[in-house]
């Protein structure tokens, strides 16, 4: 039998809804020992915790504002004291602000987005990584949710894209650092999907040949890549195609292909987002 989550301790951020909830339930269904749930929405978190307990798995809901480094440190200390370590870390929490850059408020939009999407995964991982590295002889995984926006620029996504470019660069660099120190059992996977239909990107339109991905399909692809220890997973295939074409074509030629042919540059024209707390 191959490597799995069975008997492991799993932490999922943004676990109260959307992909985070599905990751947590996937861990429980596949036999995790415990699933630690972090989210700022305590009411929805409690519901997910009950769903996990119904699967006869330990659920540990914790109300945590991942943009608050002190809150993260306190919560991480509690997890390590209780579990003694962590086997799986899924940095899923994220937010989006979709509008022209000059309309972004510095605190409510720019700092808010960067803190949750880019800084928080680094701060959270920093709290756990030494303990994860110390578990010699045991396979462990870190999954960081980035975005196709980390590979292709897009109007009305300047701050969101910058946050996800940061995640991709940091996450893959961390993977290389672990390989350099010879930790072959702690693997880092970066997941880069296009629009996922959780409600987070309500109003956005998928580019040519790129339908909105269902949350179930996205979680399944990310999960399989994480278990396999795959460095980067792009989804769907058009994300890989776009990354290759952008690297090969001159800027203006790529702008024509992305904007006029595939419709990437118009995909956020009718974006509304959702009023719910972060995914």
Automatic annotation (TrEMBL):
Signal sequence, start to end: none
UniProt keyword terms in alphabetical order: Oxidoreductase
InterPro entries to which the protein is assigned, alphabetical: NAD(P)-bd_dom_sf, Sc_DH/Rdtase_CS, SDR_fam
The keyword Zinc-finger is assigned to this record: no
Family: Belongs to the short-chain dehydrogenases/reductases (SDR) family.
Protein name, entry field: SDR family NAD(P)-dependent oxidoreductase
Taxonomic source organism: Lysobacter soyae
